[in-house]
Each structure stands twice: as C-alpha cells, then as structure tokens.
Amino acid sequence: MHKKQVDGSICAPLGFKATGVAADINGKENSKKDLALIWSEVPAVAAGVFTQNIVKAAPIQVTLDVLKKNPILQAVVVNSRNANACTGEQGIKDAKRMCLLTAHALDIPEEWVAVSSTGVIGLPLPMSRIEKGIQAAVQTLSHDGDSDAAIAIMTTDTFSKQFAIQIDIGGTLVTLGGISKGSGMVHPNMATILGFITTDAKISPEALQAALKQGNEKSFNMITVDGDTSTNDMLLILANGLAQNAEIHIDTPEFELFAHALEYVLVFLAKEVARDGEGATKLLEVQIQSAASEEEAKIAARAVCKSLLVKAAIFGCDANWGRILCALGYSGAHFDPSKVNLFIGQVQVMEKGSPLIFDEETALKVLSENEVVIRADLNAGNAQATSWGCDLSYDYVKINGAYRT
Fold first, then answer.
1. 279 has a pLDDT exceeding 70
2. How many domains does the chain divide into?
C-alpha cells in the first residue's frame, strides 16, 4: 500500500469542517477549549466501537442507539471536562439535548448527530454553557479547524493527537484523517478514550464497521496506561463518499487497501495516546514473536505492557528482565520458558530460557531513550503481536491524586 502523510487531520478529507471552542464547562473561566464539533457537508456512513465497561456514560448510550437505528451521521459534538457519566436519567436527557441543539443549529436531522463526552465522572452537565458553546462552535466551523477540535477534546493530555494520510484506491485518491485523546484511564478493552476518524471514501456500512473493528483490534485495543477501562471510550468513523471512488465492499482488494490504511492511522494515534500517558516519560513497545497464536501473542504483549513492576523498571532505567519474564508467565499465553529469547532494545538478556551476561551501561543507554522496545521470542509458533504503553512515574500519582481539584 502506497500512502502519503498529508497536513491536517479530520479536515483533510474532502467535505469536512471542525472547530473547538471554550465553553467554560467547568466554570473556572480559564479559556481552555472544551467543546468540539465535527461536521460533514453531506451525510456520511458511520461506524463505531465503544467501551466494554458495564458502566456506560450517557453519551455512549445515546450514540449507540443512534447508530443502531441508522448508520448515518453528519455531525459529532464532543465536550471535555465533564464525562456525563453516572448521571442517571438527567444525563441521558442532557446527551440527547446536545444532539438536538447541534442538529437545530446545523439544520440537520437530530438522528444524524453523535455525542461524546470526557472528563470528571458524576457531575451534571452545565447545559446553559453547553448550549452557548454549541452555538459558538457552529459559527466557527472551518476547513482548518481540526487542530482546535483536537485540543478541545483533551483532558490531562499534554499534546493533541492528529494524523492524516492519502492512498490510491482503484485510481482514486482517498484521504483518511483522525484525532484522538487519551492520557489516563486507558487499558485494552476498547481503550481509545476518544477517537474520531473521517474519510472521503465511499464505502458500504458493513465494510466500514468491519474495517474499524479490525483496525481497532491492532491499535487502540493494544495500548495500556494504567489498567483502567473508561466509562466513555468511543471510536467513531465517518465516510462521506466525496472522493467519488467506486463503493468499497467487504472481501475485495479495495477493502484490504482501505482497511490497512485505516489501521495505519489508528496505530499512529494509539501510540500517541500511550506516549502521552499520565506522568509518562517514555513510550514502551512490547513485541511478542513466535507465539502459538495471534490471540496468545496479544495476551502476552498486553501483560508485559500493563505490569506495574515492568513500567516502574522502565522509568528507573533498570534492566530488570525478570519482571518481564514473570509477566509473560502469568499472562495466560502458552509457551515453554526454556525456549524464550528476550531483548531490551538491541540488548539480549536471555537466550533459550537462560540469563545472559550483558553490558549494563549499554542497557542503561537503551532504557534512557524516549522509546523503549522489549522483544520476546517465545519459540512456540508463528504468530506475533505488538502492544504499547508507557513507564510509571511519580507524576502519575500526583496527577490522579488531585484530578477533581
């Protein structure tokens, strides 16, 4: 697949506008953008994957219902600072009202609007501020508004996550762009926190959902920051067809091209979320090779990535490979420990289950980098998988010890 990175993100595909405005949702008047709006000039085929947490926030429930009735969207309204989670019937009413206010302001059907929220759990939405924010957002929609939207959906993130690429599908140039947020409460079980993808590709609803689910399994479902699965995790994609390619269907070469391109965008954004984990100083990548099956490779990779002891060792630049092997052992993956080869960066620390003498100074240099790769060859089969996470620093506790204040 030949792909080209392009400027922008959700506004890079044809026919999309976005914005981010300061609605003062937490009432502290600090001017941070906290309400985003994404709009397609024409109705778009839509697909989504959502948190598997039994406790689902009101916007999750509302958007799920919208997509079940008809997989068509033209706008997505998103607020940060308030999750609208565990807010009872009023929370559902407020989420629906956000859709209605957006629909009226854009003069589109209410059922073509999705809603998403992120922030503190258990607080009612300040609907008077939300209403003013939606009105301001509609007035400021722009083909250059993707950066503002990416900033507006952030919570404890330290930088916005944006990406866009172009590919050729059947002789037609197709663009995919995305934004995401996530820093804490991130763990494989959807795990994206919030992610919004746009594309001008023409694709059937079934193919779009299949491509999103497939890509999510190898991207956002393979990251972890702290082992907590949010009540608000949502990944949506809108495809408005303005590229005017021949419609993409499942089980075609065009579908494979599109699915691979989507996975590429999702993996980029997922890694950015892991890189920006709360208090993180390093991106951790765990590669499992020669596993008995892909599912077991995933299980093993995730176990190492979420191990608090491994994460702490990475933060402290300690080549404590025993913690890695221990995590592999309790992961649930089947392998023979006497056949494992283990690497920290390019430094091999174990061969066929036996420890190796290695240069501690070289290992220290590897562990001092901004990105640390752990590779385990299980010698149990031909499958592989990669998971991403981050180190565990003192700042994680500081951030979450005062999150509401």
1. yes
2. 2
Strand residues in 182-271 grouped as ranges (E): 194-199, 234-239
Angle 136-142-145 (CA atoms, 0-180°, nearest 5)?
Answer: 90
**Whole-number Å distance between alpha carbons of 369 and 380:** 30
Dihedral sign of CA atoms 272, 273, 278, 281 in order: negative
Q: What pLDDT is recorded for position 404?
A: 63
Average pLDDT, the chain: 94
Q: What is the dihedral of CA 71, 75, 76, 77, to 10 degrees?
A: -140
Of the residues 51, 155, 175, 192, only one is catalytic, namely 192
Please indicate, yes or no, whether residues 353 and 261 belong to a single structural domain of this protein.
no
Same-domain pairing of 171 and 193: yes
Domain of residue 80 covers: 3-275
- Stated pTM of the model: 0.93
Which residues neighbour 64 within 8 Å (Cβ) at sequence distance 6 or greater?
48, 50, 56
Residues near 344 by beta carbon (within 8 Å), at least 6 away in sequence: 319, 321, 324, 363, 366, 367, 372, 373, 374
Q: Among the three residues 275, 298, 331, which one is the final residue of a domain in this structure?
A: 275
Residue 238, strand partner residues: 46, 198
Looking at the structure, do residues 254 and 311 belong to the same domain, yes or no?
no
Q: Which residue has the higher pLDDT, 27 or 255?
A: 255
3-state SS class at 293: coil
Q: Is 63 a catalytic residue?
A: no
Q: Residue 16 and residue 39: Cα distance in Å, rounded?
A: 6
Q: Is 241 left (phi over 0), alpha (psi -120 to 50) or beta?
A: left
**pLDDT given for residue 224 in this prediction:** 85
Tell which residue, 199, 271, 242, 258, has the closest CA to residue 1: 258
Whether residues 221 and 296 fall in one domain? no
pLDDT at residue number 146: 97
Q: How far apart are CA 104 and CA 370, in angstroms?
A: 47
Asked if 25 and 93 sit in the same domain, the reply is yes
119 and 173 together in one domain: yes
d(CA 235, CA 197): 8
Q: Quick one: 300 and 252 in the same domain?
A: no
pLDDT the model gives residue 187: 56
pLDDT digits (tens, 9 = 90+) for 146-181: 999 999 999 889 999 999 999 999 999 999 999 999
